[in-house]
Amino acid sequence: MTHGLTHLLGIAPLSAAEITMILDLADSYVDLNRSPVKRSEALAGRTQINMFFENSTRTLVSFEVAGKRLGADVINMAMQTSSIKKGETLVDTALTLNAMHPDLLVVRHPHSGAVDLLAQKVNCAVLNAGDGRHEHPTQALLDALTIRRTKKRISGLTVAICGDIAHSRVARSNLILLKKMGNDVRLVGPPTLIPPGLDAEIHHDMATGLKGADVVMMLRLQKERMDGGFIPSEREYYYRFGLDAAKLANAKPDAIVMHPAPMNRGVEIDGDVADDLTRSVIQEQVEMGVAVRMAAMDLLMQGRADTRGVMV
Ligand code: NCD
Q1: DSSP letters for the chain
Q2: What is the pLDDT of residue 305?
Q3: Does the Cβ of 59 fall within 6 Å of ligand 1?
Q4: Which residues are catalytic?
């Protein structure tokens, strides 16, 4: 398989064909992950370092599981106890790691653009596991895989992305991917949480925003990125924008409910809706995350296969 992937920094640089290629390969890894022996040798001999400068449960574990199932040597750097705490810069830390010849660096960072900067300084493949409010490409890919497997297509759908759009890299990456693949995307939320200039239909009311939607994607209120009063109160927010059965009734009867998690039950989503397995695909999203990350890392290493041992 030939492709131009050297890093995975965002959805924006990917073509629709590259997105499809990743999803197709991920489908085969879903099968592997459901089999008793979850083992491939695609990354045997490769070294993967996970550098997470922000909290994570799903994404970090998922990248670790993905690397191990592909046979890579996986290192999770504990950033809280690293020399960053002694004043070392991000770039110096990256150059130090680079000298140890890793093949893959998986990076999550609170600053938008930090992962791109790092990719310019090292020889190995860099995967963005979320940078500030900018991009979270593997999340959008796993969401796309979940939608494609449930709806049997990933184009011509109406997708409502709801909640804290302003602070969400998940919303940005999903918006870019879903538009590239030919879907209608609506952004639904209070005016304070929807930045101007996004290429989507904007709604400030859940009833109209969800009308006829095939997919309802909820987002967490990212309080750690807020520096002021964006909502009157969580109670008021839940009343107007929290997804409960009554609001969901505006979407198509077979609409699916998604959430990248972590969820705040009773803030952006009602617990009963989140747990309703006839509608909610939140656990499938987690499962697809491992497969998508396996596919992305496999493809990045295939792109560098001829340089095994000799870094490009
Ligand atoms: C998201 C993130 O970190 O951007 N979580 C995730 O990766 N599953 C969304 C969030 O934190 O709300």
Answers
A1: -----S-B--STT--HHHHHHHHHHHHHHHHHHHSSS----TTTT-EEEEEESS--SHHHHHHHHHHHHTT-EEEEE-GGGSGGGGT--HHHHHHHHHTT--SEEEEEESSTTHHHHHHHH-SSEEEEEEETTTB-HHHHHHHHHHHHHHHS-SSS-EEEEES--TT-HHHHHHHHHHHHTT-EEEEES-GGGS-TT-SSEEES-HHHHHTT-SEEEE----GGG--S--SS-HHHHHHHH-B-HHHHTTS-TT-EEE--S---BTTTB-HHHHH-TTTB-HHHHHHHHHHHHHHHHHHHHHHTGGGTTS--
A2: 57
A3: yes
A4: 58-59, 86, 108, 136
